UniProtKB/TrEMBL annotation:
<feature type="transmembrane region" description="Helical">
    <location>
        <begin position="36"/>
        <end position="58"/>
    </location>
</feature>
<dbReference type="Pfam" id="PF00487">
    <property type="entry name" value="FA_desaturase"/>
</dbReference>
<keyword id="KW-0812">Transmembrane</keyword>
<keyword id="KW-0276">Fatty acid metabolism</keyword>
<keyword id="KW-0443">Lipid metabolism</keyword>
<feature type="domain" description="Fatty acid desaturase">
    <location>
        <begin position="63"/>
        <end position="270"/>
    </location>
</feature>
<dbReference type="GO" id="GO:0006633">
    <property type="term" value="P:fatty acid biosynthetic process"/>
</dbReference>
<dbReference type="InterPro" id="IPR005804">
    <property type="entry name" value="FA_desaturase_dom"/>
</dbReference>
<feature type="transmembrane region" description="Helical">
    <location>
        <begin position="183"/>
        <end position="203"/>
    </location>
</feature>
<dbReference type="GO" id="GO:0016717">
    <property type="term" value="F:oxidoreductase activity, acting on paired donors, with oxidation of a pair of donors resulting in the reduction of molecular oxygen to two molecules of water"/>
</dbReference>
<keyword id="KW-0408">Iron</keyword>
<dbReference type="InterPro" id="IPR015876">
    <property type="entry name" value="Acyl-CoA_DS"/>
</dbReference>
<keyword id="KW-0472">Membrane</keyword>
<keyword id="KW-0275">Fatty acid biosynthesis</keyword>
<keyword id="KW-1133">Transmembrane helix</keyword>
<feature type="transmembrane region" description="Helical">
    <location>
        <begin position="64"/>
        <end position="85"/>
    </location>
</feature>
<keyword id="KW-0444">Lipid biosynthesis</keyword>
Length: 329
């Protein structure tokens, strides 16, 4: 048996997942579905606290300011994941000045959805090998797997093997990203859990346990929001830009995630900073935010797909759908 060649590690929240990649031939089916129990139990704990928090919310056992504060943090968290890790660092769909990068990194710590480095790595692999075994959250393995199950089992070896063929030199050499990666456990705990629990307790006398539970309502809620892009927006919705791929246009996910549900468009034109054809609001708060940053001079080089290219792709997709329907008759 050949020795392990590479390690593929990823963090999610307070969890730390480790996966060793073996040559494909010696991986058994059982090994491919090996459950990481530590992560399973952590998710159960997170959801227990979140449900407890929901109970406090609906029964009026929490200060209104605690709710408002966590709602505000959820917006920041979303900017850190979507405008930061996704549109800036994964797809390089626009350029940002240092103050904006620092702000987005801070927001990313609040979101606590992997370090920027790990998020970028997983997401680039997802785009490149979408809906195959090399996709970390391959929708063909089921809705639950794509949603959150992939974080509870060891990664498929194809993810590691094929993932290593991609270019990560930009994030390897980015000092800010490397800094956050190095101290991520502390930064994420401090920004995502510790501060949000302490601020309501200290400033308006919230019970610390209630504050903890509301913090987990926010955290678990934002996790599910992001996960819906990998699950629901790969199953439910229309495919006007490319009918041959799984990602869909899903308005509900778009509104929940502040602009990430226009996923068929995004997979077709991943370099477009809007992650949507339309400039108008459409729930796309992140596009509004990036536009504003560009106006005040903190963002530049915003990339978009040209209207003629979009029209050509739409026409091609329509023809492909028509051909498929005729073949089925
Ligand atoms: Zn996707
Ligand atoms: Zn993407």
């Amino acid at each position: 048996m050949r020795q392990i060649q590479v390690r593929f590690e990823s963090q999610i929240g307070l969890l730390y997942l480790k996966t060793s990649a073996f040559p494909r031939t010696i991986i058994s089916r059982k090994k491919m579905l090996e459950i990481v129990w530590k992560n399973v139990f952590s998710f159960i704990l997170y959801h227990y606290l979140a449900f407890h928090g929901l109970f406090y919310l609906v029964t009026g056992h929490t200060h209104w300011a605690t709710f408002a504060f966590n709602l505000f943090l959820a917006q920041l968290s979303n900017l850190g994941t979507i405008s930061g890790a996704h549109r800036l660092w994964t797809h390089r769909s626009y350029q940002a000045q240092l103050p904006l990068k620092l702000f987005l990194m801070f927001c990313n710590n609040i979101s606590n959805q992997n370090s920027i480095y790990d998020w970028v790595r997983d997401h680039r692999v997802h785009h490149k090998f979408s809906d195959t075994d090399a996709d970390p959250h391959n929708i063909k393995r089921g809705f639950f797997f794509a949603h959150m199950g992939w974080l509870m089992v060891r990664k498929h070896p194809e993810v590691t093997i094929k993932g290593q063929t991609l270019d990560f030199s930009d994030i390897d050499s980015d000092k800010l990203i490397q800094f956050q990666r190095k101290y991520f456990k502390f930064l994420a705990f401090f920004c995502s859990i510790f501060l949000p629990v302490v601020v309501p307790w200290y400033y308006w006398g919230e019970n610390w346990y209630v504050s903890l539970c509301i913090t987990f309502v926010r955290y678990v809620g934002t996790l599910h929001g992001t996960w819906l892009v990998n699950s629901a927006a790969h199953v439910y919705g229309t495919r006007p830009y490319d009918s041959d791929i799984k990602p869909t246009e899903n308005p509900i996910v778009a509104y929940i995630t502040m602009g990430e549900g226009w996923h068929n468009y995004h997979h077709t034109f991943p370099w477009d900073y809007r992650a949507s054809e339309f400039d108008s609001f459409n729930g796309n708060v992140n596009t509004v935010f990036i536009n504003f940053m560009a106006k005040v001079g903190l963002a530049h080089g915003l990339k978009t797909a040209s209207l003629s290219l979009i029209q050509r792709k739409k026409l091609k997709s329509t023809n492909s759908t028509t051909n498929k329907k005729q073949l089925q008759k």
